[in-house]
What does this fold into?
Amino acid sequence: MRAVILLLLCLLTAFACAQEDSDWIAYRDAYRQMIWFEKYGKPKQFLQNHYRLRPRDKSISMDGVRLTLNSKAAQVSLALDALGRAVFPFSKAAYDDNAELVVNRKASQFKAGPWVSIVTRPDGVYTAADLRTACEQQLAYLRYSGVNAGKGCVGVQFTYGRSDTAQVQFHATGAAPVTLAVKDGPAFADDVVQNLRVVVYRFASLPEAGQLVTGSTPLAIAGLFE
It folds into this structure.
């Protein structure tokens, strides 16, 4: 009996280590997570949903990280942006094949899952009213998906890379443009990577009517919840 117990412990330990060292994520699990946004019936025209990989530790670099969908029918490379986000491919064939999302690193080094943010505009012009609505939409969706994001929307944050032109100005009728402060920080509240350039627009600090004009397209826009 003792030998059997020891054998079982060894097998369980080996299984746990194999899971820890795995470089893949079950496509079906990711699909079930991502489909929530697709089925969400409330307003979401200002929102976008990606599948995201983000480091668990600040010492882990995203440089060279690749994500691939491997199924019986095909192998598809999923492009990751600077924040580790990819457009998720909804595929019945991949689901039926029990496909894998393969990372070229140990998957345990990353947190992986759906990531909702505010859509960026190619012209770089955002009305204050639209940003308020976008923030409320994001908060409503996060609550729907079970995330306790905060009590309410207080603003939005624009995120830029270190070498990007990080400039956001508030324009109100009859007033000189106000350039918002740039500081170092994370793209999203609980990210471990803190060395990006961020611009925070707090709704209460500026007139209710106006436009936000960006000097270049941000990597991301996210609601601020407090």
